Amino acid sequence: MRFLSDIPTLRNLGIRFKASTYWKDIAWLASGTVVAQAVMLATMPVFSRIFTPADFAVQNLFGQIVGLVVVAATLRYEYFIQLPQQDEDARLLVQLVAVLGFFTTTILTPVLWLFRDVIARWAGDVALAPWLPFIPVTAAAMAVSVAVQGYTQRQRLFRRSGEAELAGKVGYAGTILAGWYFLPGAGGLVMGWLGASLGKIAWLLRGTLRVSCGGFVDLLRLGRAYSRMGGSLVLSHAFLSCTGVIPSVFIAHAYGSETLGQYALASLAIFLPSALLGGAIGSVYFQRASERWAQGLSFEDIWRSTAKKLLLIGLPLYAVAILTMPSVFPLVFGKVWRPAGYYGAILATSAFFAFVTTPMDRTCLVVGAWRYVLLWHVARTVTTGMVVGMALYFQWDMDIFMIIFVVQQIVLFLIDYWAEWRFAHFQPPHTSPAGGTLCVGP
Q1: Across residues 18-27, what is the average pLDDT?
Q2: How many of the other CB atoms lie within 10 Å of CB of 406?
């Protein structure tokens, strides 16, 4: 009877039976994410009243620079935990991320302390200077949390991963409140990023990851194995970070820190579903797609199902946001945040396209199309710079800049959506004994 297992139809049925747990795993991860969102939404009105728009501007700039540092800190190896065929190699990748994060923190912290005033002036806000030395440890903690969570999801412990999202947001809120009491200015908001990562790591390490103590040779072997893809991802994410830094620094210089604070709160609120709920769906999608591809099977049906669900969730969610944010923001966060409501309504359009595309943006990594992700991020950074250049040349006010900026982002998201759809239709390189491609049809 063994020959029956080699019949493609029966193999397809077996794979589809396993795929029936796909949305169950997403439900586990999303449930923790939804509760985490509730924590964020419940605490944000408190934070908006105990911190000023200028404090949120400092937090935004701090987060943008962290995004730049984390790209180089661990060479993005934390994103490859799902890819090795052997669990031992996945654990060694986690160790490699931790080692690289440690060395980055040790080397870069004194550098940022020495040049803190220069960097703060360049960023457009001198209040950022005291907090710059905390950027390396925050970046390292973020990278390690992504690596450990990736291994947790590799083991299909999506319930644990969902709980970690809640632990991270509790750590974020608790750190901000403690920082408001003990630290001056924007200190609490700034340290919230570190608290979120440490809270997530602490929860995930509860028996999930057996520590591997690989030697230098093992770590070097894995580093070399993923160096080409890692190099592409480092450059891609560097351009991605620049896409966030460019408008923030421009707004700080052109319109002032108060306006940047309004923009920062609007971005934080409107992109929250994309960052949390979309991230939950994307994590399970990446794990399933990688698993299928490693087995020599296609995953187009998973892409199609995920895309349909994202559209059904995103359309009503962001339609309501566009209509209600101008009136809801002053009521929830306080009258001083009225401009943030208008900015949020404008940003909601691009946030919708981010929500339906970002969860599946690692499709190119699954099929090995690592050059595409670099090209797309280069295009996004260059066009963002062009929008800022036009705003400077034509002296646009903030509203005009926001509208043109959002249109530019939407065009790039649509291009990415089409490209990832094409990648999902690629056939894996493994072939059947008869010489045909072995895959699962839609």
Answers
A1: 67
A2: 18
Cα radius of gyration rounded to whole Å, the chain: 22
**Model confidence band, residue 294 (pLDDT cutoffs 50, 70, 90):** confident
Q: Name the token pair of 92.
A: 């060694």
286 near 150, Cβ under 8 Å?
no
The two three-digit tokens of residue 63, written as one number: 């987060």
Global pTM exceeds 0.90: no
Q: Residue 398 is encoded by which pair of tokens?
A: 């903030």
What gap in Å lies between CA 59 and CA 38, rounded to an integer?
Answer: 21
The CA-atom distances, in angstroms, between 154 and each of 80, 90, 92, 151 are 11, 9, 14, 5
136/244 Cα distance (integer angstroms): 18
Domain spans, the chain: 2-424
Q: Identify the bridge partners of residue 431 per DSSP, sorted by sequence position.
A: 437
Report CA dihedral (259, 179, 163, 315) to the nearest 10 degrees.
-10
At 82, the pLDDT band (50, 70, 90 cuts) reads confident
Which of the pair, 272 or 86, is modelled with greater confidence?
86
